[in-house]
Structures are given as structure tokens and as C-alpha cells.
Specification:
The complex is a heterodimer of chains A (about 575) and B (about 375). Chain A has about 575 residues and is α+β, with helices and mostly antiparallel strands. Chain A has 16 helices and 18 strands. In chain A, strand 8 and strand 9 form a beta hairpin. The longest helix of chain A has 26 residues. Among the domains of chain B are: about 130 residues, Fumarate Reductase Iron-sulfur Protein, Chain B, domain 2 (Orthogonal Bundle), CATH 1.10.1060.10; about 130 residues, 3-Layer(bba) Sandwich (FAD/NAD(P)-binding domain). The chains are: A alpha+beta (about 575), B alpha/beta (about 375). At the A-B interface, strand 6, helix 10, strand 14, helix 13 and helix 16 of A face helix 1, helix 4, helix 11, helix 12 and helix 13 of B. Bound molecules: flavin-adenine dinucleotide.
Chain lengths: ~575, ~375
């Protein structure tokens, strides 16, 4: 074997050291001694958690879980795995207590109760916020990391995994490389957990670590993806980032068109106005702009002074952002800003059972790499779900690993996979940045990602096919930094194809998916998932129906029905 | 978008390199001013560069860099008293970097390397007398430079006094085998009568043009014929070149030094090899060998993040991931950060919030949105 290749082995390999990966590692240690986290980002950076606000979805004591579930089924327009969601809500309480036991501070009201923020005009669902504002996510990262160090969890940064390796049907490890040296790496494992996030489009609100590592990893390993037609469509100030609209909208912020009209309340969303998921605001933004009433601005003038005081960033990157914008003459809380839609992350993910197991033995997925959401989002759900799924998947993957011998490992195939990827190194060719923007331009077209239609989706599919056939093969990586970016770009194109194909396969509108050519729910069939897999090197979609008769709630009311898109 | 790094303020601690998820930054480690650890290192290992290479997982390059000054890191990591760790800037913050642990890890990687013969670049042969670590060190560097080298050792095996330690003995065996694989000749059980009258002629008859005596303390008080002795009864040598009173004869290790540590013995071998190379190529022995006086980079650790040391094994050893983590604790004193991949910045401010020196400026404005988003939503305003 190539003497350059570093070979490691571990009981449970966790790809991705974000909040979900860290929770998984913490729990897998209950069953096995040797747990290894690898992350393509810097050692211990903690994924997106480190940037987040630390808002956490949890039903507190005295709140009825069925009320929450009812809200969610309504919010998701019936497209909800009710058993799984109910379990997540119940476990959220335990994980919330775990966080407090690890030393995390959640914000409290003067009367001592937890400070919560209402969500999306829903009566029951609230996110509990972290304190101090701007440090919540950083603190969670530190608390989890302390726990991992105490458990001697092995951790490596700047390692990008490029391919999963199997022994027969079961996963036996993975290959990748060190992103700053290009040195190849083989990791043998009894169980492998995808904690990578599913990926997205490197738009500016998030960091680009969410860029599509796992779609290619999962598909080439034979795992299935679900709900790939759903994406998180955020919306942001035109020139800078600002996190916290989930909290600002309920406080009175709203969107206005160029005539100064509150178009959500006046027309599209007569009941809750702008206090809904960004996705619905974005739909209306597109319609308003098409009608010549753009640009759209974010109006904060109706937020009461104490509301503004409570949201002025106190620490972290948001504080710096606020200070620097002020130096440029921009005060977020007194000026009116032009906002634009921004497609961020896929909300689909790897299809798993309730313990994170995929259809590939030994392969698990957790956190945002898993499929949970349907295009609409309530603030605080990701960190909650990362904790609950990480906890249970960690236990399951650990138990699986402890019951298995180390699988045989196909070194020849692994080396070939590495050679194929490393062959890009040291060559000149199309650079990843150009490719990112090219792919992003396909998907940001409003008729591809916001008000979708068969015509636009088919044209986008042609364009992606052309990009994959005629540009991607000409990409190269002058150094190993760029090799990582190349693989991310390519993954972004693969993700985009999965997004478009799944969007074509859902011939109705529901939750975060809106088809102009099918603006209503398809009531002729039970609600279904769109599942995507790789067959003979091609992406194929099929429908899986939700077992509605097993669920406690039979949907009769639908969130989407309160909007008016005509 | 990332805007600038203030060169005056940047201390090169690498916080930006260590925290940027987009991998935008790199360090320039070249600086006349050396790091405090390097100033304390008897071998003058370029620890700043070695650690920085490890921070990038450039394992073999880090090892190559270490081998420039340290022939047997697997021994040095275990034997050195680690004077480098005392002045480590991290000491003021939490705990010094486990520099010795890192060296041992690299040393063990070194032992696992398969070495191929070094292309012979020179015709004139050198003899090394004694296969303790000082002699082996001289032989290693001479062989590396392409000189034909023969090592004469009286004992059954190489290693000298280190043979009494079983771990060191087995390491020496590997290094001796590597040396042979590189092309050096090792003649065991071959005692050279250094005190006899004609040993130099004998070697010259065998066409050895330079001789490095590394026969340990055994010779103390006895006069190898024709060589001057120091006050303490060892072979008298120049402190820089280890050249004896005879131009072509050098002495290293205990043969020349009082209280030589193992590390200093290896250093003397390295320096003598360099001087031998000089004379065999017609230069003066001391060409390029005077130790320059270095100034030491200063370090203010205020505002720096603490990072607890990676727990080492009971013998102080580090695993691969332990070594990589430990290397990230190094503050690479005296280097400077630069923006290597600006197009990958996504304006998350992590670099600026983590920079203890306040040297980084991120502009809060991000890159423009994709083309048609601008057209459609901003009404072609730009
Ligand atoms: C500004 C901001 C504020 C937010 N606020 C909140 C909030 O208040 N509440 C809330 O619930 N959520 C919030 N979120 C969302 C939440 O932080 C994330 O969704 C969540 O942390 C995702 O966790 P994860 O572990 O699933 O994925 P990630 O954190 O994305 O972790 C995935 C990790 O995998 C690594 N990786 C990916 N591919 C590979 C590969 N091929 N090889 C090796 N490593 C790989 C990545 O580097 C990354 O570290 C916020 C997000 C942002 C950006």
C-alpha cells in the first residue's frame, strides 16, 4: 500500500464535529472505548453550533406535548412523522436538563421562569433562549467539548471524508484526506455516523461548512435521501448578515414593499402577517417584486424600545457586526434595510429509523444530516434535534459497534477512491468559487426554489446536467485547500440535482414546497415522502406514504391555508 | 469580507488559522527573530516551523524539518531534558506545549520510514570511530550529504552507553539499520587502536580523507597519537567545528566534551559532519558554521484562549491526533498571519473575535448575491 496513507481504526467513526456529532460521540462512549470524530473544519470548531444563538426548542414542565405536536402537524401541513416528533419533544426536556447540568445558561425572566420566544404565529411552540445574547452557541460548543475531552473522545480537524467504504452490505470505514496537506487517510470502523449536515449552497448567512459533503457520501454508499425537495429559504439584508429574525418578527418587525405597504398582513397573510416562517415571507417578496413593488425592506420601527434593547447584540460576532455597521452609518434598529431571499441549506436528509440507522448496516445519520424538516422551520429546532438525535443515535451506533467484529476492509478499493480524488491535486482548472456561483445561480432563480414550476425545474435540471457534464470534469485543485473546496462544489451540484428531481416528484404544494403549477395539496393520495436513491448511477425518486392511521393526530387544519398566493 | 491584517499588531499566534472554518489564513513562519523555545533548544530545532507544519498535518515535512537538525528524534524525544518547554510562551497562559511528546511522535514515525540508498555524490571517504549516538549522528549527516562513510565499532552492536537501556537499544538498532540502508558501512567488533602509533596512517592507507573520533570516554586521559588534549584530558576541539589539532581529525561526544548530554553529543556529530563536508570540498572547516546571535521574538499572551494539553500516555507519548492537537497549542511565536484564500471568506467574524491582538479587520459587507438575485430583487440598482 502507498506508504503515504495514514491508516486509523476506531469503534465508531463520526464524520462531522458539530452539535449532533458531539452528542453522538458523548453517548457512543457508553458502549465503546474508542470513538473518533473527524471534521473538515478546524479541530474542535464545533460546526454551526458555535455561531448559533443557542435557542432551544423544549416544552417546559406543565406544557402538554400533544398541544405541541398538534401545532407541528398543523405547521407542517400534515407532513409530519408524528411518532418521531413526539419522541423528540419528550427527549428535548431531558437534553435541556443535560445542557443545564453541563453548565449552560438559558435566559430567564425577572420572575425566574425561562425566557421563551413565540414562533411562527403558533399558539404553543416557543424557543427557550440562551444567555447572554450572542454567546449561546459558543457556550454549548464549549460545554460539549469539555464533556468529550473528559471521555477521551478522539478528535481530528481538517480531515475531509470523501467516500464511505463497505464490506459487502455493511459499512467498514471511510477514506479522506487532510485538507491542509493533501495526505490521504483511511479509517476503519465498526460503525460510521454521518454528522455532516446534508449540505447547502454556501450562501452568506451560514458558513460554508454546510456545503454538501454528505449527499455524495450517502448516495454512493447506497443510503437513501428523503425530503430533498425542501430547502431552508432564509432572507437577509442585502449586504450584510443579521441573525435573529425568528425573534424579531414576533416583536413587531415586518416586511414592507416599495410603497411602504405591509404586504403580508394586507394581502398574503391576513392572520399573522410577517410573523411566520421566512419561506412564506419570501414567497410574497417574489410576488411583490414581480408586480413591480420591490425592493422589499425590513421595518423594525414597530418593535417597542424594550424589545430593541433586548435584541441589541451583547457579545460574539453579532456585537462586532453591529458595531461595524454603525461605523458605516448603518443602525439595524433605526434604519430600514433592503432584504433579499436566500436559499441556504437543504432540509432534506438521509433517511433513517428513529435511532439514526440508515438502510446500510453500520451507517447512521444524525442532526441536520438526517431528514426531519419540510421546508418550514422554527427557531431552536436544529439544536434540539441535534441533541435528541445525537443522544439516541450515539447509543445505537455504540451498541451496534460493540456487538460487531471489525469488518474486513477493501484496501484496494479504498486506495483507488483516494487516487481518483487526489488526482485533481496540483493541477490547474476551473476554480471552486466560480463553480459555487454557477450552481447557486441555477437554484436561486425564484421559479426554481420559491415558486417552482415544472418548466423552470426542467430547465434547471438541464443546466445542472450540463454543468455536471461539461464544467465539473474540468475542475482542478492547485493545492489541498482547493481540493476540499472542489469536493464541496461538486457536492453542491449533486445536491442541486437531488433538489430539482425531488421538487419535480412532488406534484402538489405543501409546507415549504410550492408549485405554481400545482398550488394545492394533493388530496387524492395520503401524504407521502419523496425518497431519492441512486440506481445504476442515476438518481431515482419514489413515494413513500405516511402511516397516517398509526398517528394520533389526523390533520384537519393546515398552516398553508391561511395564506393567499393569488 | 476579510479586509486586512495589521502587520504591526499580528503576533503570529495563529488564532485565525486555527479557528477559520473556511480555511482563509496561513502563517509566514520565516523571521530572523527565533521563538523562545528555539533559543533554548541545544540542537536549535526549528520548532516554530515544525509545529506549524504539524498544524497543517504536514507530517513528513515536519519530520524532514526536524531531521535537518536532529538526526535521531526518537531518541531525543525520550532523552532530552526539554529545556525548550520552560520558556514556552504558553507557560504563561496554561501549560507549555508538550514539545518533547511531539518530537517523540515524529521520532517514532521516523523509525517506521523505509529509507533508500542516498545517491553517492562524493568520492572521498570519511571514517567514524565509535557507533554511539555522537558517531552515528556524524555518520548520518555525512551519509545524507552523499559521502561514503564507514563506522568502526568495537562492540557487537551500535549504541555505546545507550545500549544499557532496552528501549534506547532497540531504537538504535533501527537507526543503525536505516543508516546502512542509506549506504553507510557499519563495521562491528572492529576496535581501532587509537592509542597506537600508526592509526592515522592505517586509515589514510584505506583512503579515508577525514576521521571523526566518537569513541566515548574510554579514551579519557589517553592520548590518541598526535592529538592535543584539553585540560580535562579529552581531545581538544574547536567548539564550533569539533576539529581537533589535526586538520582532518574531528572528535565528538564524550571523546571531546565534558558532561556531554545525549542531545549535545548528537549536535556535536552533526556539526562535525558539516565541518568534514567543508574540508572534503576544499573549504575551511568553519565555513558557514559560526553560530549567529539570534534575537528572540517576544510574546504577550494576554487575551489568548486557553487550550488544555492533550493528555499524553503514561510514558509521555502522544498519538497522531494527540500530536496534531498539541501542535495547535503552539503559538508559533514570531510568525505572521496572512490572508491566503480571500475568496473563501464568508464574513462570519470568527477570525476577528478570536484574534487576541486585535489585528484582523473584517468588513461587515458580504459578497454580492448571485447575479439574477441582484437584478430581480434589487431592481437593477447596481
Ligand atoms: C448564525 C446561526 C444562528 C443559528 N441559531 C440557531 C439557534 O438559535 N437555534 C437552533 O436550534 N439552531 C440555530 N442555528 C442552526 C444550528 O446551529 C445548526 O443547524 C446546527 O448546529 C447543525 O448541527 P449539525 O451538527 O447537524 O451540523 P453542523 O453544525 O453543520 O456540523 C457538521 C460538521 O460536519 C463537518 N463536515 C461536513 N462534511 C464533512 C466531510 N465530508 N468530512 C468531514 N467533516 C465534514 C462540518 O465541517 C461541520 O463541522 C443557527 C445557525 C446559524 C448559522
Amino acid at each position: 500500500m502507498n506508504a503515504n496513507i495514514t491508516v486509523l481504526s476506531t469503534d465508531v467513526l463520526i464524520i462531522g464535529g458539530g452539535s449532533a456529532g458531539m452528542w453522538t460521540a458523548k453517548m457512543a462512549r457508553r458502549h465503546v472505548d474508542d470513538v473518533l470524530i473527524v471534521d473538515k473544519g478546524p479541530l474542535d470548531w464545533g460546526g454551526l453550533c458555535s455561531m448559533s444563538d443557542g435557542n432551544f426548542i423544549v416544552p417546559h414542565e406543565g406544557e402538554n406535548l400533544m398541544d405541541w405536536l398538534d401545532d407541528i402537524v398543523y405547521y407542517y401541513d400534515g407532513l409530519c412523522d408524528q411518532k418521531e416528533t413526539l419522541a423528540t419533544l419528550a427527549k428535548a426536556r431531558e437534553r435541556f436538563r443535560d445542557y443545564e447540568a453541563m453548565g449552560h445558561t438559558f435566559a430567564r425572566n425577572p420572575d425566574g421562569s425561562y425566557h421563551t420566544a413565540p414562533q411562527r404565529g403558533l399558539p404553543h411552540i416557543k424557543a427557550t433562549t440562551s444567555a447572554p445574547l450572542g454567546k449561546g452557541g459558543q457556550n454549548m460548543r464549549r460545554e460539549l467539548l469539555t464533556a468529550l475531552k473528559a471521555l477521551n473522545v478522539r478528535r481530528m480537524g481538517n480531515v475531509m471524508i470523501t467516500r464511505l467504504i463497505k464490506d459487502g452490505d455493511a459499512v467498514s470505514g471511510a477514506v479522506g484526506f487532510f485538507t491542509r496537506s493533501g495526505l490521504p487517510l483511511i479509517i476503519r470502523a465498526r460503525a460510521v455516523v454521518l454528522a455532516t449536515g446534508i449540505g447547502g449552497w454556501k450562501t452568506s448567512y451560514h458558513q460554508n461548512s454546510i456545503s454538501s459533503g454528505c449527499v455524495e457520501l450517502a448516495l454512493t454508499a447506497g443510503a437513501k435521501l428523503r425530503s430533498m425537495e425542501f430547502a431552508g429559504i432564509w432572507n437577509t439584508p442585502e449586504r450584510f448578515a443579521w441573525t435573529g429574525q425568528s425573534v424579531l418578527l414576533p416583536l413587531g418587525a415586518r416586511f414592507l414593499n416599495s410603497r411602504g405597504e405591509d404586504f403580508m398582513l394586507n394581502h398574503y397573510s391576513p392572520i399573522i402577517g410577517s410573523k411566520t416562517d421566512t419561506l412564506y415571507n419570501v414567497r410574497a417578496m417574489v410576488l411583490e417584486t414581480r408586480a413591480g413593488r420591490g425592493p422589499i425592506t425590513f421595518d423594525v420601527s414597530r418593535i417597542p424600545p424594550e424589545g430593541i434593547a433586548s435584541r441589541r447584540p451583547e457579545a460574539g460576532w453579532m456585537k462586532l457586526n453591529d458595531t461595524k455597521l454603525k461605523a458605516k452609518g448603518i443602525d439595524f434598529f433605526t434604519d430600514t434595510q433592503v432584504w433579499v431571499p436566500q436559499i441556504q441549506t437543504s432540509q432534506g436528509g438521509v433517511q433513517t429509523d428513529s435511532e439514526g440507522a440508515t438502510c446500510v448496516p453500520g451507517l447512521y445519520a444524525v442532526g441536520t444530516a438526517q431528514s426531519h424538516l419540510v421546508g418550514v422551520y422554527f427557531g431552536g429546532f436544529s439544536l434540539c434535534q441535534a441533541a435528541t438525535s445525537g443522544h439516541d443515535t450515539g447509543l445505537a451506533a455504540g451498541a451496534y459497534a460493540s456487538s460487531k467484529e471489525m469488518p474486513a476492509f477493501d484496501f484496494g478499493f479504498a486506495e483507488k477512491c483516494l487516487d481518483d480524488e487526489l488526482a485533481h491535486l496540483g493541477r490547474q482548472g476551473i476554480m471552486p468559487k466560480d463553480m459555487d456561483v454557477t450552481v447557486l445561480e441555477v437554484v436561486t432563480a425564484s421559479d426554481v426554489s420559491i415558486l417552482k414550476s415544472a418548466g423552470a425545474l426542467s430547465r434547471a435540471l438541464d443546466r445542472i446536467t450540463e454543468i455536471r457534464a461539461e464544467l465539473i470534469p474540468y475542475m482542478a485543485a492547485p493545492d489541498s485547500h482547493y481540493l476540499g473546496k472542489l469536493i464541496e462544489s461538486r457536492g453542491m451540484a449533486t445536491l442541486t440535482e437531488a433538489y430539482i428531481r425531488s421538487s419535480l416528484a412532488r406534484t402538489e404544494s405543501r409546507a415549504g414546497h410550492f408549485r405554481e403549477d400545482f398550488p394545492l395539496r394533493d388530496e387524492s393520495t395520503p401524504p407521502y415522502w419523496v425518497v431519492l436513491s441512486m440506481e445504476d448511477g442515476k438518481m431515482k425518486t419514489h413515494r413513500e406514504y405516511l402511516p397516517m392511521d398509526e398517528y394520533p393526530i389526523k390533520p384537519t387544519r393546515f398552516y398553508m391555508d391561511q395564506f393567499n398566493w393569488s | 469580507m476579510i479586509s486586512s491584517i495589521d502587520e504591526e499588531k499580528c503576533t503570529g499566534c495563529g488564532s485565525c488559522v486555527k479557528t477559520c472554518a473556511l480555511d482563509v489564513f496561513r502563517l509566514d513562519t520565516r523571521n530572523e527573530k527565533i521563538a523562545p523555545c528555539m533559543a533554548a533548544c541545544p540542537a536549535r530545532n526549528d520548532l516554530r516551523e515544525i509545529h506549524y507544519l504539524l498544524q497543517q498535518s504536514r507530517l513528513d515535512e515536519a519530520l524532514d524539518c526536524l531531521k535537518l537538525t536532529m538526526p535521531f528524534p526518537a531518541l531525543a524525544g525520550r532523552l532530552c531534558r526539554r529545556p525548550c518547554e520552560r520558556p514556552c510562551s504558553r507557560h504563561a497562559l496554561d501549560e507549555s506545549v508538550n514539545i518533547g511528546g511531539i518530537e517523540t511522535f515524529l521520532g517514532d514515525r521516523d523509525l517506521a520510514r523505509a529509507l533508500s540508498p542516498v545517491p553517492r555524490r562524493h568520492i572521498f571517504k570519511a571514517a567514524v570511530i565509535g557507533a554511539g549516538i555522537a558517531g552515528l549522528s556524524a555518520a548520518w549527516y555525512l551519509t545524507k550529504s552523499g559521502f561514503p562513510v564507514t563506522v568502526f565499532e568495537a562492540g557487537e552492536k551500535a549504541g555505546g552507553h545507550l545500549r544499557s537501556d532496552s528501549v534506547c537499544a532497540s531504537i538504535i538498532d533501527i537507526y543503525a539499520a536505516q543508516l546502512q540502508a542509506m549506504g553507510a558501512e557499519l563495521r562491528l567488533e572492529c576496535r581501532f587502536p587509537l592509542t597506537g602509533p600508526s592509526w592515522r596512517e592505517e586509515l589514510e592507507d584505506l583512503d579515508f580523507r577525514a576521521i571523526v573520533i566518537a569513541a566515548g570516554s574510554e579514551l579519557k586521559g589517553k592520548t590518541p597519537c598526535g592529538l592535543e588534549l584539553s585540560d580535562s584530558g579529552r581531545i581538544k576541539v574547536d567548539p564550533h567545528t569539533f576539529q581537533s589539532s589535526v586538520r582532518t581529525v574531528f572528535a565528538v561526544g564524550d571523546a571531546a566534551l565534558d558532561n556531554a548530554s545525549d542531545v549535545l553529543s548528537m549536535v556535536s556529530g552533526r556539526r562535525a559532519a558539516q565541518a568534514v563536508g567543508n574540508i572534503l570540498q576544499g573549504a575551511n572547516a568553519d565555513m558557514g558554521m559560526h553560530v549567529r546571535l539570534h534575537t528572540v521574538a517576544s510574546r504577550d499572551v494576554s487575551g489568548m484562549e486557553q487550550r488544555s494539553p492533550h493528555p499524553a500516555g503514561s510514558d509521555g507519548s502522544l498519538t497522531l491526533e494527540g500530536t496534531l492537537e498539541e501542535s495547535l497549542r503552539c503559538l508559533t511565536c514570531g510568525s505572521r498571519a496572512y490572508i491566503a484564500y480571500p475568496e473563501d471568506c464568508m464574513t462570519c467574524f470568527a477570525c476577528e473575535t478570536h484574534c487576541p491582538a486585535g489585528a484582523i479587520d473584517v468588513d461587515p459587507f458580504k459578497e454580492f448575491h448571485p447575479r439574477h438575485l441582484d437584478r430581480r430583487f434589487i431592481g437593477g440598482r447596481k
